[in-house]
Design brief:
By secondary structure, this protein is mainly beta. The protein has helices spanning 3-13, 25-28; strands at 34-37, 40-51, 59-66, 69-77, 81-89, 102-105, 109-125, 133-141, 146-153, 156-165, 170-173. 8% of the residues lie in helices and 53% in strands.
Length: 177
Amino acid sequence: MSIWKRVGSILKSQKEQPPVQASNPMEDTVVGDIVNVDLEEYIVSGKQIYFDRGFPPHRIAYYLQNGNTISCLLVEKGRTYECFICEFVEGALDSPNDVPTSLEVNGGITYTLESQRSDLVRIEGNTDFRGSEEVMLWRYFGPDGQYFFLQWQDGKFVAMEGTKTPAGQIKFMKGSR
């Protein structure tokens, strides 16, 4: 082997490799993956990604299925991740103009409006909304760390009641594809 071939192979081996993109399971989980919350395993059956035009996503809702039960893991991005495990609630409102600043649910818990906003949403899998359209969101807080979320798109309301869950208690596993 000549000296020039050896120098060439040394130079090739020292070329910079393209950096490997780090995966963030809080945001990169897809339909078919498995999520473990509070020692309960769910399969992701749907995903809603909320964003403002021209900005990266700031909220993700994972529809989680365990048998016949469907729950929702809501992940809100900020300096840290705020995670909420929610159950869907039945109820009725006719218009987004009818949304009150205070809600009484099941005759016992009173929730107070914390924030309201409009976002665009992209969807994957089975969810309650259509993708690439605007969704109005209301976030309420209640006693003992309970939260209530109300969403509206094109005449349809979806209500969820849940509690904050530490991000460290949520484990994401890739599904078999």
